[in-house]
Structures are given as C-alpha cells and as structure tokens.
Write a structure and sequence with these properties.
- By secondary structure, the protein is α+β, with helices and mostly antiparallel strands.
- Helix content is about 45%, strand content about 20%.
- The protein is built from 20 helices and 19 strands.
- Strands 12, 13, 14, 15, 16, 17, 18 and 19 form an 8-stranded mixed β-sheet that branches. It has a 5-stranded mixed β-sheet with strand order 9-8-7-10-11, with helices on both faces.
- α15 (about 480-490) links the parallel β16 and β17 (about 500-505).
- α5 packs antiparallel against α7 (about 190-210).
- The longest helix has about 35 residues, at about 525-560.
- About 30% of the residues are buried.
Length: about 625
C-alpha cells in the first residue's frame, strides 16, 4: 500500500492516549463532521489505538477508513454487551459508510400470468401495464421464483420462448417435453380449452399452495373416476404425484429445530458472501444473500454480520445455525435474544442434518460469488472448503504444487504447477533440473527446488508476476517428511507465513489425505476440496514425469552423439542448445550442421552420416526447457 495520506495521524494518536480502558462505542468522523464508522470495544483506548498504528497491516477497507478519519468521539458504557446494543442502534440510525450496511435491494416480486389464449406463468421483478394479470407484490423473490418453477413443472406448462399458435408443429419439441416436464403445446395436439383448464389449475396452486391444491385435485380425480373418465383421472393422478414429490423435496427436516435460520459464508479474493436460509415448519421459505468487499477474516466478520442482519428484523427464529466459530459468540447470542423477546440459540452444527444445511448455505454463498467473479460455484466452494480444512485465514487464490521425479541420478528433475482460482495456470508452470544433488534423495531435491524458487522471489517480488508472486498455499507431492523439510526452510528465508502441506497418495497412487507436520488430515468426506487437491496432485505428477522422461530421452541421445568422431559431451550440449530438437537436427543440411557453434566441416560430415544412417530417437524433444 502507498503511504497513508492523513496529516491528522499524530494528533489522533495523541488523543487516543486520553481514552479510558472502559467498554464503549467509538465514532469516527471525516473532515466534514460526517460519521463514517461506528464500532464497539471492550477497552476503548486499546481498540481505537489499533487503527492508528501499523496501518500498513490493515485491510484495504480499514486503511481507507483510517485515511479519512479527521476526529473521533466515544461513549462509555457499563459493559461490552451494552456497547454492542448501542453500536447496533447507532449504525441503524447513521448508516456509516464503512460499516456493514445490509441494504435491502430486492424490492418486490410478482407472479405474472400473460394474456391468453396461451398464457404463461413467470416470475417478474416489476409490474407493467401490458394487459397481463399480476399476483403480488411479494417481498421474497426466492419464494416467487420457487413457486413459479414448481407450478410450471407440476402442470407441465411450457417455459420456452416459442410463440403459440404461430409456431405449432414447427420444429421438434425441446428436452422438457421428452423428460415429461412440458405437455408439448408446440406440437399443436392440445386444445385451447384443455390448456386454459390446466393453466387455471396452476394459478390456483400458486394462490392456495400445495395443501389446498392437493385436496382439490383429489376430489376432481375421484369425480372423474366415478364418471368413468379414466384418461382425465390419470392426468389428475400424475399432477397429484408431482405435487407430492416436489413438496417432499422441499421439506428439509432438522433434528434440533424446525424454526431456524442457517447462515453460511464464502470468500474469494476481496469478496465475501453471506447467505441466510430461512426454515419455518421444517420447510425452506426464503433466502437472503449479501456481498461485501474487504470484510476481513470470517472469525471476526460473522459476529458483525449477525448483529447487523438481525438488528432490523422482528421475525428472529429460535435457532441460528452458523458455519463456524467467531468472536463474541456468547454476547451475540445474548443480543439476538434481547432483540427477539425469546431465547435465541447460536449453534455450529458438526454432523448429520444440521451440517448438511450449513453446507447448503455455504454452497448458496459460493454460487452467488460465482456470478460476481465469473467462476463456477464448485470452484468457489472448493477453495472455501480447502481453506477451512487447512485452517487458512482466507481461501487460497494462488496455489503452487511441486513434485520430484527421477529416472536414476542422471535425470533428477522437479515440476511446479500453478492453480489460480482453482484452475490450472499453465503459463506459470516451471521445470527444474536438480543441480546440487547427485544421488536420489527426494527431500534434498525438494529443498533445493524451493530454495531456488524463493531466491528468485526476492529478486523479482517488485514485479508481482511469475516467481515474483508469493503463493497463498504450497502443496508438496509427498507426506509429512516433505513438509518437515520445507517449512523450516521457508522460516529461514523469512517466509514462514506461507502455508505448506503435503499431498499423500494411497497404494493405487490416488490422493488419500493432506499431510502436515504432526500427521494427516483426512479429506475424503470433504468432496469439493478433495476433488480439487486430487486434480492438483495428478497435474503436478503428470507435468514432472513428462519432463523427466523427455530429459531422459535427451540424455540418452546426447550420449549417443558422443560416439560420433569429434563430438564430446560439451559439443553435444552445444548442438542441442543450437538446434533445440532432434527433429531439427536431423532436418539440417551438412552446411547447416557445420555452421553450428564449435563445429567443423569434418565433424559435421560425420554427424550427418550418423543422423541419417543410424537409428536415432525422433520427435519433438524439448532439450532446453524453461527451467532455472
């Protein structure tokens, strides 16, 4: 970061010294006297002083806030809990720029029934004067979208963009028709009257819900069967079964409570997403999600989010399940209880249904981040899960993995692959020839490779690219022995903050666990993280073994060239350096061979005869790879 641009910093530091060590709230103001941040503290002097020292260690958001501070005020309270209550109240009143502000930008949603005769049911954000019928407004876009989707599937209504009746019989039906989620209006075999009756039943379902719809459909089915209208009765039976299937899927039960909120978080780069799933009567009824920039660590952010989220709500549940530990958990629980008027329990599920619901919330947060960042939800979830599994403060955006490969002592090499945002970054891959180790020793080779890699880091760190970029995580293809060698090395080099773990294989050379100094971390039950680590391990092994084999072939051919009169080891290496590949060398004329460095016409003639009379390896062998 650049130097902090705040001339008031010495004055602010001096003012902080006069603060008491009591609990309370502090109020940061800019030069115009506007409140830009409000916080609470157990000890005011200690907390406020932390903003004005070691400012280069702040997150980008806090750094910019401190840069804008001109003055601050404070209010002493009797306890830290009273400070929390006051903080939430003040934030709600003043909405400071740098506090978490959960702006409700969802607006209202509507269910739209387009004009007939071939009406469609859709979810809409706005109501327009287009002759359609609108149901609503509803405050939850999630519920509206879910309900419309259910109605279209249950009653097999078309959701495509085809126009009826203009496009009857034009083109083949879409996939929805073949999987029995559309009645196939496009084929022109359904009468306008039958379609209108089906649409009316779907609208009744949207208005009344599944329970009343089931009662009505069962009565109609019995009447049809009594009148011997068996085809109609069969259609009604199929609709009843569709409603029952969807209703059953929507009922996600939890053994602890049927009235609770599930809160999950996901992080990528500077973005954090919080997703809240609301369950009432054992059914998912709503979802909220919010995006934040520079939120800091989740350990701190969870408490801040929960206090802000529930400070404006009146429908607090009896249980709030959260996806991890956080600071001030007991005090936050007490605050939520005071807001609700009944006991609210904060819970961190570790197993069974509760854990599955927390994973659902995390996945929803990851999916929202995927839309913001252009990555897939699986990639976001994998990095987030890997960070939690390894105890990292944030998801590892830039991962380097290393593997040692050797075919005897003459072809000891290493490969380095890079995964950025959970995807291979092939232009950052590197190959290493082992230079100081002359006998097979994976530990010594790994130490040499990492030592050389980070020597280059110190030379190029100002560029922030290639070797000049510090990884968020290092993975070694090996067990805790490799980790035990590399962690001390990085500490010696002043890079002990880089997390290092091993990737352990089973007897079938498949990823089995992650190794650390003291043992192993099982990852099979963490599916998304396991898939990512397995992919990284397979890729670094493939890359390093391919380099080892190519170098082994090159070495063998190099030795073969030394059998040519006038060519020794030094001249053979010069030839490879000049021609790059065996194919290029064989394609060269005698004159071109003679023009190569350190060559004579006599030696070139002997080499030409050797290349074209003797059998030699062919193919594009990369003999001077990108290595250090």
């Amino acid at each position: 970061m650049e130097r902090l641009n705040n001339d008031r910093l010495p004055w602010l530091r001096d003012k902080v010294k006069k603060l008491p060590l009591d609990p309370g709230c502090y109020i940061m103001k800019d030069k115009a006297g506007k409140i830009i941040y409000i916080g609470k503290a157990k000890a005011l002097r200690n907390r406020v002083s932390s903003y004005f020292r070691s400012v280069e260690k702040h997150t980008e958001k806090v750094y910019r806030m401190v840069e804008s501070v001109y003055d601050f005020e404070y209010i002493v309270t009797a306890s830290e809990f009273e400070a929390l209550v006051l903080e939430c109240s003040l934030i709600k009143e003043y909405t400071p720029k740098y506090n978490i502000l959960l702006k409700d930008d969802k607006g209202y949603s509507y269910v739209k029934i387009s004009p007939g005769p071939w009406s469609r049911i859709t979810a809409e954000k706005q109501r327009t004067d287009d002759g359609a019928t609108y149901l609503g407004p509803y405050t939850s876009s999630f519920v509206v979208s879910q309900t419309v989707d259910e109605a279209n599937k249950i009653f097999s209504l078309p959701t495509c963009t085809r126009r009826f009746p203009q496009e009857f019989g034009k083109g083949r039906p879409c996939l929805n028709f073949h999987i029995k989620q559309c009645m196939g209006v496009c084929q022109g075999r359904i009468s306008e009257e039958d379609y209108a009756q089906t649409l009316a039943a779907a609208v009744d379902f949207v208005k009344s819900g599944s329970t009343q719809a089931l009662d009505q459909l069962r009565a109609e089915m019995n009447t049809a069967a009594g009148n011997l209208e068996f085809e109609k009765a069969a259609r009604l039976r199929d609709r009843i079964r569709a409603i029952e299937r969807i209703t059953e899927r929507q009922k996600v039960f939890n053994t602890r409570a049927d009235n609770q909120d599930i809160v999950g978080f996901a992080q990528v780069d500077r973005l954090t997403c919080a997703a809240v799933l609301k369950f009432r009567n054992a059914r998912l009824v709503d979802k909220d999600d919010y995006i934040f920039t520079d939120a800091g660590t989740l350990q701190q952010f969870r408490a801040e989010f929960l206090a802000s989220y529930y400070s404006t709500r009146t429908d607090l549940p009896k249980v709030v399940s959260v996806d991890g530990e956080f600071d001030d958990m007991e005090m936050t629980e007490r605050y939520l209880t005071s807001r609700a008027g009944h006991k609210v329990s904060l819970h961190i599920p570790k197993r069974s249904e509760g854990y599955q619901l927390v994973e659902m919330a995390r996945n929803n947060a990851a999916q929202r981040l995927s839309h913001e960042t252009g990555r897939t939800g699986r990639e976001v979830a994998a990095l987030d899960e890997l960070a939690r599994l390894l105890g990292l403060s944030a998801p590892p955006t830039y991962i380097e993995a290393y593997d040692i490969s050797n075919i005897g002592s003459d072809t000891m090499v290493a490969g380095m692959v890079v995964f950025e945002d959970a995807r291979p970054k092939k232009d950052a891959y590197k190959k290493f020839s082992i230079k100081t180790q002359f006998t097979p020793d994976d530990y010594a080779c790994m130490r040499e490779v990492l030592s050389r890699r980070f020597q280059r880091y110190f030379e190029e760190q100002e560029t922030g690219r290639g070797f000049g970029r510090k990884p968020d995580l290092i993975l070694l293809d090996g067990g805790k022995g490799h980790v035990g060698v590399i962690r001390p090395l990085l500490r010696e080099m002043g890079l002990g903050d880089i997390p290092v773990f091993g990737m352990v294989k089973d007897d079938k050379h498949k990823t089995r666990a992650i190794a650390e100094d003291g043992g192993e971390i099982a990852i099979h039950s963490h599916r998304t993280a396991f898939t990512l680590v397995s992919k990284i391990q397979e890729e670094v092994h493939r890359f390093s073994i391919a380099y080892s084999r190519s170098k082994h072939k090159a070495t063998a051919f190099e030795l073969a060239l030394t059998q040519v009169p006038g060519i020794g080891e030094k001249r053979a290496r010069e030839l490879f350096r000049h021609f790059k590949t065996v194919k290029a060398m064989k394609a060269a004329s005698m004159e071109e061979l003679a023009q190569a460095p350190a060559m004579t016409e006599k030696t070139a003639a002997a080499l030409y005869r050797h290349l074209h009379e003797d059998e030699a390896p062919e193919g594009n062998l990369q003999l001077t790879p990108d290595k250090i």
